[in-house]
Amino acid sequence: MDLITTHVNADFDCLGAMVAARRLYPHALLVFPGAQEKGVAAYLAQHDDCAALFSKIREVDLAAIDRLILVDVSQLERIGPFAEVARRNGVELHIYDHHPGKEKELCPALARIAPIGATVTIFCELFQEQGIVPTPGEATAMMLGLYQDTGSLQFTSTTERDYLAAAFLLRHGAELSVVADNLVQEMTADQVELLHALIQSRQVLNINGIDVSIAHASSPDFVGDVATLAHKIKDMESLDAIILVIRMGDRLILVGRSRRSEVPMNDILAEFGGGGHPQAASATVRNFTLIQVLEMLPMILTRHVTPLWRAEDLMSVPVKTVQSGTTIQAARDFLTRYNVNAAPVLAGATVVGVLTRQTVDKAAQHGLAGTAIDEFMNRDFFAVAPQTPVVELKELMTRRDQRFVPVVDSGRLVGALTRTDLLRHLVSGQRALPVQGTTVHGGALFKRRPIERLLRDRLPPKIIELLEAVAAVADRLSVAVYLVGGFVRDLLLRKKNFDLDLVVEGEGIVFAEALAAALSGRVRTHAKFGTAVVICPDHFKIDVASARMEYYLQPGALPSVEEASLKLDLYRRDFTINTLAIALNQGRFGELYDFFGGQLDLENRVIRILHNLSFIEDPTRVFRAIRFAQRLGFNIGPHTESLLRSAVRLGFVARISDARLRNELIAILQEEEPLPILRQLATYGLLPHVQKDLVLTEKIAKLFVAAEQTLNWFQLLYTGEVVEPWQVYFLCLTSHLDDAAMEEMTMRLQMPESQRHDLLAGRAAAHGLLTRLTRKKKRAPAPRASEIYHWFSPCSTTVLLYLSARADDEIRRWISQYLIHLRAVHPELTGDDLHKLGFAPGPIYREILDALRFARLDAVVESRSDEISFVKKRFASVL
What we know:
Elements: E1 2-5, H1 12-24, E2 29-31, H2 38-46, H3 48-51, E3 54-55, E4 67-71, H4 82-87, E5 92-97, E6 110-113, H5 119-130, H6 136-150, H7 160-171, H8 176-183, H9 189-201, E7 203-207, E8 210-219, H10 226-236, E9 241-248, E10 251-258, H11 265-270, E11 275-277, E12 280-285, H12 290-304, H13 311-314, E13 322-323, H14 328-338, E14 342-347, E15 350-356, H15 357-365, H16 390-400, E16 404-409, E17 412-418, H17 419-427, E18 447-450, H18 452-458, H19 461-477, E19 480-484, H20 486-492, E20 500-505, H21 508-518, E21 522-526, E22 531-535, E23 541-546, E24 548-551, E25 560-563, H22 566-571, E26 581-583, E27 591-594, H23 598-604, E28 606-607, H24 614-617, H25 620-632, E29 635-636, H26 638-649, H27 658-669, H28 674-683, H29 687-690, H30 698-715, H31 725-733, H32 739-748, H33 753-779, H34 785-792, H35 797-806, H36 809-820, H37 831-836, H38 844-857, H39 864-874
Parallel strand pairs: 1-2, 1-4, 2-3, 4-5, 5-6, 8-9, 13-14, 20-23, 28-29
Antiparallel strand pairs: 7-8, 9-10, 10-12, 11-12, 14-15, 16-17, 18-27, 19-20, 19-26, 21-22, 22-23, 24-25, 26-27
Helix pairs in contact: 1-5, 1-6, 5-7, 6-7, 6-8, 14-15, 19-21, 25-27, 25-28, 27-31, 30-31, 30-35, 31-35, 33-35, 34-36, 34-38, 35-36
């Protein structure tokens, strides 16, 4: 007799695999070895056709079994009463499983085992090989198993073969609505109570640098589907790994879930007789108490969690070095320029010493600024190899009291480590393990966590396809590429932003050219800064830059640029919330890197600079801090605000170049709500730095409110005309200035000549027109349509919107009438028609067409024939 079975506490993969195996063994009995998960039992209760396929174990003569088919299991201790059958001589054993490594002890006659997401996938492949077509009911049961064991195809254990299996099942009638109804279920009251107890008891063990959560609880009665509780806690707390230990009556249920390959749950729980795969495993324990298991877990975890942190995983590259023979003063300037406290000293390419800021400062104070650093550098230093374990590195740095450690490979300097790097790693950075084959350097790695799912949930398919193309090019060129800047910040804030900024640890322009070729686009390069813009065929743009560091030769000046690592590239940025990066290379696609606590500042909604001289080196950051705070609804951190006020008080804002000041002002006026930002600028005394007479009175503030309402109204007209709102707001902000002050301001801000002319001439015309119309409406009757057209037609739309914001309701109605109706009125006759009527070409054509337009506006003419009659009568003397 043939019999198909699986492991105790059967899940949907067991169910689907058993149903599938019956097609390969059509005369076999289907028998569960024990209880099923609650969801499986509920499914069978609702689907009689599927339940009818299964026999009760008490109805089976175990002695009559001569062939035993195991699915989703390959361990005797997990198949209940069928373990004795499997051991019996003469019983042929067949195994189908996706948990390799445990089958050898059973010596099966046939084994189909593969490290894939679900056992169901194996049967899908067998069906296709043998031409077997599942029924819709079978396909649905199999899809349930596939979706449960792969987390709806999202677990890291999911393979390409699982996706192909899902497509096969969907093609043969699998009902996804049934899958969704059975996999997403409300928790019972017992589960909720158990979940609360688990959350309350959760503790974190740091095992070899990785946080593993342990939670325990007890229940007098059996509670089903406790595996779902592990998933919930893992997702709620964003955990890398968790083990639940739950006492139910006389037994313990252990459930493990892991996102990290370094925490193999199948091996860990195998110590308790359990099984599964690296990402998900379980065990049932009867011979230990809850306390004993909790005491055993730390030792077991230590044996199985073995990360390989080495010096090369923490070191910073490239390293700024000082050459032997450099003077103390030159070395002091060097350390200040690059904002570092220590540097290796090289003789040629060999490290011969370590120089610290403390040493050069003291030497300079003693009048030794012109002496060579060789006289005072530390020659009694140690260096380490890239492969040096962090545990050994910690011991060396502590014992030798050396704050700066060169990393040397075959006599060549390849990186450097500081005590701060090591401390940050030991406190928090060690939670993120280095990825084999790719090294992210920098000991200040506070957090690294996967956010690929967030990327795919928040971004349109077009952007995802572009990012995957970036990853492919990066891997082909063997360079590391990251998404950085506002895109990452806004992604985490759930704000829409599709401006892609890429940083390349390597030649950014070379990468950009390769990316443009892959996308059939073109590239615009800026060699001086190592940047480029890739322009796709649909004109979508991607900014690309080499990872670089900047230093400022004087406050307010543009920075000098040099090649650097990702960490140093991010360190040059303005605020911590803009220092986040997302890796794009395949194998770590979607991993978020946070070197400077940006995530915490996003969570706390605070704007914070990276170092105390940030506003001094680049005073434009004063404006950006206020702009970001108002745009995002954040607060400026107390220390950052203090430094901001100091930069203003000490006059560093006055050193900003005119062009950069113009750009910052335009950026502020381009915000959706510029008025709150301008209020803050006024509070900090920054407006006079733009123009000495610039103020924000309550009258101007009301003008901004009116301008915003006017712009919103105009956008709702859907005319298709492009208007720059910032220009309207600029006119509002400067409305109180006289013409001379306005001209001086636009010249000092180096506005383009055409833009200057439009703003100055338009503003003067608007002010003059507003004065005339205000007088006119008091003593004249309602104007004719042609008059309204005559007033407003010389003005640009930008000027008219500004005028509308300043005007009263009546003048605003006239402007509205012009923009909506009057400016679209044209005569039917053209120059060709006038020529046919006998008029000689010349300036008279413009006079006639204008007269026709005014006649149309005032309803004097309404048709083409009316226009012809009007022209013949009005301009008869010209014919």
